[in-house]
Write a structure and sequence with these properties.
single chain; 121 residues; alpha+beta; GMP Synthetase, Chain A, domain 3; 3 strands; 55% helix; flat
């Protein structure tokens, strides 16, 4: 069990590093409408460090799919810039996804609220 903690800690550090660098690259290098307020919310890297999923969110929910398409189209360029920026090998292969955490939390909150209300009626 002692080998797991350092490995997980390393993955967490790599997640934070990738999140920071991807955020900077998107802000500086991509032509994305600044009104979208695109945010990199989370990064999940596989335990073998081969792949990383970059989760994004935008203020304008109706344009998330459009933004995701732009990021996926630019993934090769972003990967290239990330490879040059990070001093680690291998750099995980990135892919982008929409962060649905807020929507899931909101649905759960709504369900719990309605259940609580029904219990009081």
């Amino acid at each position: 069990m002692e080998n797991i903690a350092p490995r997980n800690h390393r993955v967490e550090k790599i997640n934070e590093l990738i999140k920071e660098e991807i955020s900077k690259l998107i802000l500086k290098e991509l032509d994305i409408d600044k009104d979208l307020l695109l945010t990199v919310t989370n990064v999940k890297t596989s335990s073998d460090l081969a792949h990383a999923t970059i989760y994004i969110s935008t203020i304008i929910k109706e344009r998330e799919e459009e933004t995701l398409a732009i990021l996926r189209h630019s993934a090769g360029d972003i990967q290239y810039m990330l490879n040059r920026k990070l001093r680690m090998r291998p750099v995980p292969r990135i892919r982008f996804a929409i962060d649905t955490t807020y929507e899931k939390e909101q649905r759960l909150y709504d369900i719990l609220s309605s259940t609580e209300k029904e219990a009081h009626d």
